[in-house]
UniProtKB/TrEMBL annotation:
Keywords: Membrane, Signal, Transmembrane, Transmembrane helix, Transport. GO terms for molecular function: channel activity. Residues 1-16 form the signal peptide. Its main location: membrane. The chain crosses the membrane at residues 26-46, 67-88, 108-130, 142-164, 184-204. It is found in: Membrane. This is Aquaporin. It holds the Pfam family MIP.
Length: 213
């Protein structure tokens, strides 16, 4: 809920109704992720994202029923968060389609999907590194690492696809505005990236304990 309420708040054009520079949204979403992980990470893992939950499921951190419950909660929370922002915003978010994630007009569909896959794959990698048993004692900087990762990936991919990396984040504005144009990209890309991350990480970097003879 907070991800959409606070994150999308940074996209509201208030200064003469001009659109803010891309860094506003990137820093906004990144720092909200930082806050949520620092506040709730020890309770639920603070996934906020079906792509992250899929990575955790394939990593072995979650059972399937719990993973499904997480995704439902993430989508409902995002919808409620955006709805609250609609209620308090001085700008008509629905009419202006504020905080919508849409591909660049010159992007082909396959290009937008590839961008979202790579961004979500990168996000998945850093999550896998956090879950890696080798790093189990290195927990103090997790909120900063993940928050600044979101900032970096958003700055890189924002101008191209909106850098969603999160189906729930894209679902809420689409549902409230009724604008479903190319929305499916923001499910396919992040979920593929989220699925690939733990598979590749385990194959390439996860150290397996050797059995004692």
């Amino acid at each position: 809920m907070l991800l959409l309420f606070l994150g999308c708040m940074t996209t509201i054009p208030l200064d003469g109704f001009d659109i803010h520079p891309p860094m506003y949204s990137a820093i906004g979403f990144g720092t909200v992720v930082l806050f949520n992980i620092a506040s709730f990470g020890h309770i639920s893992g603070a996934h906020m994202n079906p792509s992250v939950t899929l990575s955790a499921l394939l990593w072995g951190n979650l059972t399937l029923p719990l993973g499904i419950a997480y995704v439902i909660a993430q989508c409902l929370g995002a919808i409620v968060g955006y709805g609250l922002l609609v209620a308090v915003s001085p700008v008509n978010l629905i009419e202006e389609c504020i905080c919508m994630t849409t591909p660049h007009p010159n992007h082909a569909v396959y290009q937008a999907i590839i961008v979202e896959i790579i961004l979500s794959l990168a996000l998945g990698f850093i999550n896998c590194s956090v879950w890696d048993p080798v790093n189990k004692e290195k927990v103090d900087g997790i909120p900063l690492r993940l928050g600044f990762t979101i900032v970096a990936l958003s700055l890189a991919g924002g101008p191209l696809t909106g850098a969603s990396m999160n189906p729930a984040r894209s679902l809420a504005p689409a549902l409230w505005t009724g604008n479903w144009s190319q929305h499916w990209i923001y499910w396919v890309g992040p979920l593929i990236g989220g699925a690939l991350a733990p598979i590749i990480y385990k194959l390439m970097w996860l150290k397996k304990e050797k059995p004692y003879v």
